[in-house]
Design goal:
This protein is an alpha+beta fold. Helices cover about 50% and strands about 10% of the residues. It has helices at about 15-25, 45-50, 70-80, 90-105, 115-120, 125-150, 165-180, 185-195, 200, and strands at about 5-10, 30-35, 60, 65. The termini are far apart. Bound molecules: glutathione. Glutathione binds near residues 42, 57, 70, 112 and 113.
């Protein structure tokens, strides 16, 4: 693949953050196009032509547009198998996908900007919205921690970074933003281990070119 891939994202988007980690782990070159979610960049006609869902990320690979971060991570893993983001055997893969989906399907979607705005429109005040988000994050992370408790470290499932770690670390960024607890089981030590790796360090929101200058 000669052209660099184009990642449509936003510095603080946790779904974009997952892709930045995956691309970094695979050592793949990419160019970023930032869409300011707070200013509605995701709803511009130009972006909707790329992703009709009006959500980031989208990854442009040659003539193809890919959406949904989990599907994109799996695509990258299939096309660029090293280092593998999923284990070799089917049972272990199912376990990794299950915890990855706790974050991607059950925890993260309900704190989406779109969802939080809908709640506000329906009369919930900010404290109630935050309390709701915290409850969802904490219950999801507690279950995540239990499901990885029996596995060897230092990462979620052993000595290989998997999709589970890629989903977990950005979600912890969201947990901090909302003031949710995340000190469940091995979660803090998994995060600390991941944050020693360049792919995780480079992917943090504050390091992105569209992040506000402090
Ligand atoms: N399931 C999607 C979620 C994408 C998503 O929710 N993106 C958020 C940012 S993390 C977004 O674009 N929000 C814009 C909005 O809610 O208007 C994925 O994993 O790619």
């Amino acid at each position: 693949m000669s052209e660099a891939m184009v990642l449509h994202g936003y510095w603080r988007s946790t779904a974009s953050w997952r892709l930045r980690i995956a691309l970094g782990l695979k050592g793949l070159k990419w160019q970023g196009v930032a869409h300011d979610l707070l200013r509605g960049g995701q709803h511009s006609a130009e972006y909707l032509a790329i992703n009709p869902q009006g959500l980031v990320p989208a990854l442009v690979v040659g003539d193809h547009v890919l959406t949904q971060s989990l599907a994109i991570c799996e695509y990258l893993d299939e096309v660029h198998p090293e280092p593998a983001l999923l284990p070799q055997d089917a049972l272990s893969r199912a376990r990794v996908r299950a915890v990855a989906q706790i974050i991607a399907c059950d925890v993260h979607p309900v704190q989406n900007l779109k969802v939080l705005r809908m709640l506000r429109k329906r009369g919930l005040d900010q404290d109630a919205i935050n309390a709701w988000a915290i409850e969802v994050i904490e219950s999801g992370l507690a279950a995540f921690a239990e499901l990885v408790a029996g596995a060897e470290g230092p990462y979620c499932f052993g000595s290989q970074v998997t999709l589970a770690d890629i989903m977990l670390v950005p979600q912890l960024g969201n947990a901090r933003r909302f003031g949710a607890r995340f000190d469940f089981g091995r979660i803090p030590s998994i995060e600390a281990e991941c944050m020693k790796l360049p792919a995780f360090i480079d992917a943090v929101p504050a390091r992105q070119s569209d992040a506000p200058i402090e």
